[in-house]
Design a protein that fits this description.
Layout lengths: L2 H18 L1 H7 L7 H12 L2 E6 L5 H15 L4 E6 L2 H15 L4 H6 L6 E2 L4 E4 L5 E4 L13 E5 L6 H8 L16 H10 L3 E6 L7 H13 L6 E6 L1 H6 L5 H9 L5 H7 L15 H6 L10 H4 L5 H4 L9 E7 L13 E10 L5 E11 L4 H14 L4 E5 L11
Parallel strand pairs: 1-7, 1-8, 2-5, 2-6, 6-7, 9-12
Antiparallel strand pairs: 3-4, 4-5, 9-10, 10-11
Helix pairs in contact: 1-2, 3-4, 4-5
């Protein structure tokens, strides 16, 4: 066997080894020390045809995406990769990771990239490799039609409409990678082509359960437990980021200690949990969310005057046939024995339709804590008059509210 043949045979063995162990390639070729969960995810990216990753903030999903697409382009010459996101800047962030974080660590990666053919400007973002592989950032809209790729990376995919993904982006995957099997017969070449499937990667933080992203996770989970399918889905919360040293626990504590801390946003952004109603709920989140169509609230004059668009959100004059209802769930002051909830007040606007029915809109809501019943009575009476309400509904069972309300 000649030296040339030995080199080719060694390249074939090492190529096969690294394709099955991309985490070792990242360590040996890109000189990156990956954490255990990153190594597992990287291997599953190469194994899957559909890969869905729900990650907490600060978990480095853009960095891991950059590592994956570099390895893919190097080990599979001629690979075409398209990156799309709800915002073009988010997709460009993956390319920035390649150019400014991965390249300085690896002279080998620098030698693979064709600097003359690569572009990074306001109109075109792409990374060209000398082995004819290509990474390209595309806009998630109809203007992206005509692109073709073997790997489609959707970063923050929850921000992309389902229609755009189905009608535009997923159509990129009609192209199959065509390596040069010059020494194979037509039958052998067909078998080689059949082994390699195109891949779609979905990466994002969690969102609402009524969003299509949640349905995608459920569908992928069902396919994941099917041995005949090669799909993978997982979600990692912020605790993993802290354990791996990627997130400072003090920052999380500071965020949770803020007065305007939102448990729902924290659950979605940091806990990788989709938020919505549980099964069997009388009012499910999906039906409520579908009917949230109010563009502007109706705020009292003292609040509306402090905002620039006060003309849009101040209380309008009542229309013919319109009914307004003030409802309040009364809570007493907390004591040593009882840690009572807050008093909640709602203004319901009912607009009459041509058919004689009513459209119900909740135009104002507020809550109050630590107030005596006489103070609550004054607030309710003031809002009742200011909104020109027709009816007053009180939930004060077991409680006494000051009669001054009348």
């Amino acid at each position: 066997m000649s030296r040339y043949e030995r080199v080719l045979e060694g390249a074939a063995y090492w190529g096969a080894f690294y394709r099955h162990n991309p985490d070792k390639f990242a360590e040996d070729y890109l000189h990156i020390k990956l954490r255990l969960f990153q190594r597992i995810l990287l291997v599953m990216m190469f194994w899957s045809t559909v890969f869905v990753y729900i990650a907490a903030r600060g978990q480095g999903k853009s960095f891991l995406s950059a590592v994956y697409i570099c390895i893919r382009c190097i080990l599979y010459p001629g690979t075409k990769i398209c990156i799309a996101s709800g915002r073009r800047g988010q997709a460009a962030n993956v390319v920035e990771k390649i150019l400014y974080e991965l390249k300085p660590l690896s002279p080998e990666l620098c030698a693979e990239i064709d600097e003359k053919e690569s572009k990074f400007n306001g109109t075109e973002i792409k990374v060209a490799f000398k082995n004819s592989s290509m990474i390209k950032v595309v806009t998630a809209s109809d203007t992206a039609r005509g692109n073709r790729c073997n790997v489609l990376l959707l970063d923050e995919f929850r921000l992309i409409s389902k229609n755009t993904i189905d009608t535009v982006l997923r159509k990129f995957l009609t192209l199959r990678r065509m390596p040069r099997y010059s020494e194979l017969t037509d039958e052998e070449r067909k078998r080689e082509y059949a082994k390699e499937k195109n891949l779609t990667l979905y990466l994002s933080s969690a969102y609402w359960k009524d969003h299509w992203a949640y349905t995608k996770c459920i569908d992928t989970l069902k396919a994941m437990i099917n041995p005949a399918r090669k799909q993978f889905v997982c979600g990692f919360p912020y605790e993993l980021s802290i354990q791996e040293g990627l997130l400072d626990p003090e920052l999380v504590q500071d965020e949770m200690a803020e007065q305007d801390f939102s448990e729902i946003k924290f659950a979605m952004e940091m806990c990788a949990e989709f938020w919505g109603s549980d099964d069997g709920s009388f009012f499910d989140f999906e039906s409520i969310s579908r009917n949230r169509k109010i563009k502007y609230p109706m705020l009292p004059d003292k609040l509306a005057s402090k905002l620039n668009n006060s003309s849009l959100i101040k209380i309008p004059v009542k229309q013919n046939g319109e009914i307004r209802i003030l409802s309040a769930d009364i809570a007493l002051m907390s004591s040593r024995k009882h840690n009572n909830d807050a008093t909640a007040i709602f203004i319901n606007q009912l607009s009459r339709t041509k058919s004689g029915r009513y459209i119900s809109n909740i135009v104002f809501a507020d809550s109050y804590e630590g107030l005596r019943t006489d103070d609550q009575s004054l607030i309710i009476r003031q809002l009742f008059d200011e909104y020109q309400c027709d009816y007053l509904v009180l939930d004060c069972q077991g409680k006494q509210i000051c009669p001054f309300i009348w």
